[in-house]
Amino acid sequence: MDYIINYIVNNWLQLSGGLILGLGVGMLTGIFGAGGGFIITPALNIFLGVPMNIAVGTSSCQVLGASGFAIFHNLDKKMKGIKVALLIGLGIPFGSYLGTLVIDRWKNLEPIVVNGKAVDALNFILLIIFAVFLSLIAGWLLFDNFVLKKGKPDNESNHVGLLSKVSIPPLIICETIPHAPFSIPLLVVIGLFMGFLSGLLGIGGGVIMMPMLFYIIGQETKYAILTSTMLIFISGLFATFFHAMHNNINYTLVATLITGAFFGTKAGVKIHKKISGKSIRQYFAFVVLLAAAMVIYKIVRILN
User: Fold this and answer.
1) How far, in Å, CA of 27 to CA of 29, rounded?
2) Residues 6 or more apart from 256 whose CB is under 8 A from it?
3) Inter-CA distances, 288 with 139, 206, 277, 294, Å
């Protein structure tokens, strides 16, 4: 008992930060169907000083908890999109394993010399990947919603996914992909890619899954968010397992993150029910852009 009290006293700032971060990211999970790992991982490193490998593993565990809460709050929707989620989920464990292997290998890299000072190679490489990845996602969402579709009505019933015409057999008919049967192998490959990102960056994949499900597969925004939430849970489960094997998780910090996520997710789901699909995509673009700016700021500080 004394050990726990002393730990809390000595780490109250980090634990309080984790609670607040979990609350905010939990709301994002409920609203956008994104687990928030794309914010938590860099935030743990930038604001709370957590090493990137621990931030990645801890974020994976939080993503698991937050997405679980979001799924629980959406049970009344009969889990539409579960067929798509299960097929994509087939590729997730293999991708997660590959991602954690890369992290484990990069732990042994020699420090990188930047502007005459030694910089941890793992931290720097992951921050660069994060910055590029988030900037591309945010750029596309902003361009699509505020340039290509500016002033146009948001008629998602006529929306067709970019890969809906790729007929690699076997094909499957899904209620949430209305325009054509979709290729099962393509869904599995998408899951492999999502799992790799989860293992490598500690993100549940929602930051890319929601846009991919909408633009590439052809689901409407509301269904894409439900499917994405299920996928985040699956990827978080496997990523947490693999990172636990490599001692990349701060369980005390996870407890505060998940506690905050419990309350944040419930509020986020209520907000989600009141927002249109177009508004969700627009708001999500700015959230991703903010995360990218946060990571770029960290990189600039390192370079200077």
Assistant:
1) 5
2) 15, 16, 18, 19, 22
3) 9, 11, 17, 10
Instruction: Write down the residue that tokens 């890319």 correspond to.
Output: 208
Contact 44, 55 (CB under 8 A): yes
The answer to whether the bond into 170 is cis (omega within 30° of 0) is: yes
Residue type present at position 68: G
CA dihedral 156→158→162→165, nearest 10 degrees, is 140
The amino acid that residue 202 corresponds to is G
Work out the average pLDDT over 7-27. Answer: 76
Tell me the three state secondary structure of residue 33.
coil
Cβ-proximal residues to 149 (8 Å cutoff; 6+ apart), any chain: 278
CB 20 within 8 A of CB 35: no
pTM, two decimal places: 0.75
Extended strands (E) in the chain? 112-114, 117-119, 171-172, 182-183
- The mean predicted confidence, pLDDT, of the chain is 81
Is the pLDDT at 192 greater than 80? The verdict is yes
Q: Do β-strands 182-183 and 171-172 pair in parallel, antiparallel, or remain unpaired?
A: antiparallel
Rounded to an integer, what distance in angstroms lies between the CA atom of residue 37 and that of residue 100? 15
- With CA atoms as reference, report the closest residue to 101 among 179, 198, 190: 198
Displacement of CA 230 from its chain's centroid (Å): 12
Residues 186, 93, 200, 142: is their CA dihedral positive or negative?
A: positive
Structural tokens at position 294: 């946060």
CB-hemisphere CA count at 13 Å for 94?
A: 10
Report the alpha-carbon distance of residue 262 to residue 279 in Å, rounded: 24
Domain ranges of the chain: 2-303
With CA atoms as reference, report the closest residue to 18 among 66, 78, 73, 53: 66
On the question of pLDDT at 268 being above 60, the answer is yes
Count, residues in the chain: 304
Secondary structure class of 83 (helix, strand, coil): helix
